[in-house]
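User: Hello! I'm new to structural biology and keep hearing that structure can be predicted from sequence alone. Could you demonstrate with Catechol 2,3-dioxygenase-like lactoylglutathione lyase family enzyme? Please show me the input and the output so I can see what each looks like.

Assistant: Of course. The first part below is the input, the amino acid sequence of Catechol 2,3-dioxygenase-like lactoylglutathione lyase family enzyme. The second part is the output, the predicted structure written as tokens.
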Amino acid sequence: MNPEVPELDGVHHVKLPVTDLERSRAWYESRLGYEQVMEFRDGDNVTGLLMSHPRGGPALGLWLDPERASTVAGFDYFAFGAPNRKALEELAARLTSLGELHPGVHPGTIGWVLSHVKDPDGHELRFQCAT
């Protein structure tokens, strides 16, 4: 190991701009199982939320920034990891049962992918596993 390379430890959290905090909070809770753990305020105004996932998903920050959310809609910032294809298939079935459109689980460059899932602001969510 090169001692000049800084030491890092995975992804601490992901932060997404949103147009409506409550709508996005409810979506991430109902679709992916996230739970709100913290609220950020500017005086009396709630400006952001921090959410955690009980089964290993990355911490997720939702930040009220309607202009930026609209500008970057459709871009996939990152891919959520999944342990295996079965977990992706179960997520796909859950999303379908909740009325979310997606093309299903399909082979990716490496492993399997569930893509083109859109959150309320149109951010494209991607889920991937190696096996």
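User: So the tokens describe the shape?

Assistant: Right, they're a compact way of writing down the 3D structure. Reading them back into a model, for example: The CA atoms of residues 51 and 120 lie 16 Å apart.
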